[in-house]
Amino acid sequence: MDFPAELKRQIARVERGLDLHVPRGDTRPARLHTAMRYSLEAGGKRLRPVLVLAAADLSGAPGEAALPAAVAVECIHTYSLIHDDLPCMDNDDLRRGRPTAHKAFDEATALLAGDALLTHAFLLLATAYAPQPALVQNLVRELADAAGSRRLVGGQMEDLLAEKKPDATSDELEFIHLNKTAAMIEASLVMGGLVGGAEEAGLGALRRAGRDLGLAFQIIDDILDATADSATLGKTAGKDAQAGKTTYVKLHGLEASHRFAAARTASALNALESLPGDKAFLRMLVAAMAARKS
Amino acid sequence: MDFPAELKRQIARVERGLDLHVPRGDTRPARLHTAMRYSLEAGGKRLRPVLVLAAADLSGAPGEAALPAAVAVECIHTYSLIHDDLPCMDNDDLRRGRPTAHKAFDEATALLAGDALLTHAFLLLATAYAPQPALVQNLVRELADAAGSRRLVGGQMEDLLAEKKPDATSDELEFIHLNKTAAMIEASLVMGGLVGGAEEAGLGALRRAGRDLGLAFQIIDDILDATADSATLGKTAGKDAQAGKTTYVKLHGLEASHRFAAARTASALNALESLPGDKAFLRMLVAAMAARKS
Predict the structure, then answer these.
(1) What ipTM is given for this predicted complex?
(2) Chain B closest CA to A83's CA: distance in Å?
(3) What's the CATH code of the domain at A148?
(4) B182 contacts B214 by C-beta, under 8 angstroms
(5) Where are the alpha helices (DSSP H) in B148-247?
(6) Where are the alpha helices (DSSP H) in A148-199?
(7) CB-based contact A149 B36, cutoff 8 Å
(8) Is residue A78 in a domain?
(9) What is the count of structural domains for chain A?
(10) List of E strands, chain A
(11) Paired strand residues for B98
């Protein structure tokens, strides 16, 4: 398989889906819909929606059936970035080289665009899958749980609290990684499986793979922040150390971090092996995330 | 019927539901869950969740079947107030005589508590009604549509834009009232009807009643802001005029505003009449909203 070409093809599917399933910028209220699209169209790896599509393909979902679920996941991810960048949170002016939403528009518009993207994710699931109510119920529960107070938002909350005390414990760090990062990656694979009609065992394997991939992904983020230069990274490197933030690297050192990331990646690949079907793309995607330089 | 006693009984049901269906303040992350409950427990009229319960009772919902839907609606309403009060929006320090969430906690916690309440509403619908997937699908679609970019958030966006231009048109004002206020009141009655298994005709009547009640409710808000004193109102009166904000009163005058509110109230009562069952409580609730002094 030509992995770069296949990844490009999957990302193009996601871009088409975003254009198809999010209100156009010229519909009322135009400023709100324009701000929603501005942040959605900022690009990025599209890791989460590509995981939805890959898991759905693997589970036998027909054609573009998983596209609305992929878009819903990316809406949630994008809302969390918009709110994360706000002055009362990380106060970032740039994301992926472009002004953040509150810089390109204003704080109130950015806040509302985030709220609207979060809400739109659920509207999309409930409308696109309306002929399959049991699927709607499963998708909404999975996504709302992963994005909710115990997981994504909860991880964000504990991350904020941890920044204020540089002696965060290993337990606190694990809570943050599991919930702020791994929850949505896990939900992406599970939602793809749900659209493809995967059985309990298959969903369990996808969930374990997502959890491990998510943990590896976050620790590699920590490693890159500590070791890469800003030019390669496309964003300011060394921010964690500068902020005195507790990271896996700070708590356990670089060598142990590399070891942990490799172990989680191996474990994710192992979980995938139990699934039927052609796992080549998902396997290569997991490996590419482990080997990434930015 | 002893309307005040019955209203009190319905509000007590809502309070019990909130306590039952929202994560406890001592569960992790405690600060986030405490902030969510702080804002939920600030009280208020509980108009929206009471409308859910009343419409469900009327439509024949058994026992407390509508309680999760009522709580979901109040979670959305409360999130919208928390975000509304933030410094980048209305910058309010007090709500119902208590410090707003960002004053009692901090801006980041308030932002996240709002996000978490919004997400929790959908999680609650997908879990509490899991044995009835078609009901989950209908409830999620109704709520996400009413709370989404074209309605609640969209109305909020246009309201913000209108504040910056004191010559907002009657069309802009109608968009704001219909979406910022009436959408969630409409959804409350419809969701109650859905839980009670109301047919298309019944749902249509509930939707029309909610729309009219919502429009009357907002215009009475405008009238009270222009005419009541702060002590009666429990919040600063005259804020709209002071801010140079376009309201129904400013555009059409007090007399026309009273006339419009009365017409909308009559129209809401009329829509209710077409429904089967004992409408006494709903009828009195609509009348009480029209006659309210705060």
Answers:
(1) 0.97
(2) 8
(3) 1.10.600.10
(4) yes
(5) 152-163, 170-176, 183-195, 200-227, 230-233, 239-242
(6) 152-164, 170-176, 183-195
(7) yes
(8) yes
(9) 1
(10) 94-95, 98-99
(11) B95
Residue A60 domain flag: yes
Which pLDDT band, with edges at 50, 70 and 90, does A271 fall under? very high
A23–chain B nearest CA distance, Å: 9
Report if residue A234 sits inside a domain. Answer: no
The owner of tokens 């005029």 is B241
Largest Cα–Cα separation, chain B: 53
Parent domain of B71: 3-291
Say yes or no to pLDDT of B237 above 80.
Answer: no
> What pLDDT digit, counting tens, does each position of B55-112 carry?
999 999 999 999 999 999 999 999 999 999 999 999 999 988 899 999 999 999 999 9
E strand spans, chain B: 94-95, 98-99
Above 90 in pLDDT, residue A211?
yes
pLDDT in tens, A179-195: 999 999 999 999 999 99
- Whether A163 maps to a domain, the answer reads yes
Whether A29 sits inside 8 A of B147 (CB atoms) is no
**Is A109's CB within 8 Å of B33's CB?**
no
pTM: 0.97
Percent of chain A with pLDDT over 70: 99
Angle at A95 between CA A91 and CA A96, to 5 degrees: 165
